Amino acid sequence: MELVISDLAVSRGGLVVLEGMSFTLSPGEALILRGSNGVGKTTLLRTVAGLQPPAAGHVSAPPESLAYASHADGLKSALTVTENLAFWAAVHGLGRDRLEQALEAMDLMRLRERRAAQLSAGQKRRLGLARMLVTGRPVWLLDEPTVSLDQQSVGLFARVVRGHLAAGGSALIATHIDLGLSEARVLELDPFRAEARPSVAAGFDDPFAEAIA
Ligand SMILES: Nc1ncnc2c1ncn2[C@@H]1O[C@H](COP(=O)(O)OP(=O)(O)OP(=O)(O)O)[C@@H](O)[C@H]1O
């Protein structure tokens, strides 16, 4: 499933933060988004995920092909690790075998009966990433996926991404750290293009837009 970004501009708080972005992400490919704090990585991922409309240009990919993991892990704190994954597997129509694979892949077997509320930050993150595996969706959009992860878990995560690419998936990843994915392309977002100026679609996504503008 190909993700095609054409002459895309994205805005936050009523201001364009990035524009003129064009790239294609093909099956088996990873693209790392880099750039300083505030350059617009999260905004770009949110726009690609369909959580906000582009200020200009197009995102072309079937919505059902996309799986987005934001800074928040999106966990249900009263449910156990297994129950959380079972919930998402059911939403996406996947079975128990996939759930077991996800537990294994993110080293969650020993924690499977623990409630999400009682996990450490890094363990929650591992569960949040395991969730991607039970979506069955080919195009992963990952925002700072390794926050709170120790070195070993970063390695686990990189292995999961590699497996996903090998199976014909793709990944667009905003990160400040080196994931060791030497095969990934890197897109440096240019802070000089991030100069704030009014968006044509100003004010659509944030109640504080006017105060900031
Ligand atoms: N809720 C919001 N309302 C208004 N402006 C915002 C909001 N969130 C972020 N911004 C602004 O939008 C711009 C892009 O932010 P974004 O979060 O996309 O950057 P980022 O590259 O992901 O940063 P970081 O590396 O710090 O995560 C920044 O200048 C930021 O100040």
UniProtKB/TrEMBL annotation:
InterPro entries: AAA+_ATPase, ABC_transporter-like_ATP-bd, ABC_transporter-like_CS, ABC_transptr_haem_export_CcmA, P-loop_NTPase
EC main group: hydrolase
The keyword tRNA-binding appears for this protein: no
EC number: 3.6.3.41
Keyword Cell cycle: no
GO aspect biological process, one term: cytochrome complex assembly
Transmembrane segments: none
Gene3D superfamilies named among the record's database cross-references: P-loop containing nucleotide triphosphate hydrolases
Residue stretches making up the ABC transporter domain: 3-213
Protein keywords: ATP-binding, Cytochrome c-type biogenesis, Hydrolase, Membrane, Nucleotide-binding, Translocase, Transport
A GO term, aspect molecular function: ATP hydrolysis activity
Protein name from the UniProt record: Cytochrome c biogenesis ATP-binding export protein CcmA
Species: Pseudogemmobacter humi
UniProt lineage: Bacteria, Pseudomonadati, Pseudomonadota, Alphaproteobacteria, Rhodobacterales
